[in-house]
Write a structure and sequence with these properties.
The radius of gyration is 14 Å and the shape is globular. The chain contains no helices and 8 strands. The chain is an all-beta fold. The N and C termini lie far apart (33 Å).
Length: 94
Amino acid sequence: MPDYPSNFLFHPNNKSLTWDYVPEATDYNIQMQPNAASPFIDIYTGTDKECGFDQPIGSYPIKGRVKRKDEWLQFGPPETVSVPPENEVPPSAE
């Protein structure tokens, strides 16, 4: 298991982003790059493995790091998360 959040997944029904648990992590810091000309920006810092992600249609590089024993570790490699058009979102199972 890596020492950084990975497997970022966008959930269109509630416009959220989730990632895998990292053992012994006390906090997560998640960043996104809004466009190719922009630097990465913080979108979440906290203890949950989920955050709101209400972005326009497109693909976004996302990366994260964890705090362990009061020290922030290195960011993992960016992963691309896609936000599809609403008409391409499958209906939620009832």
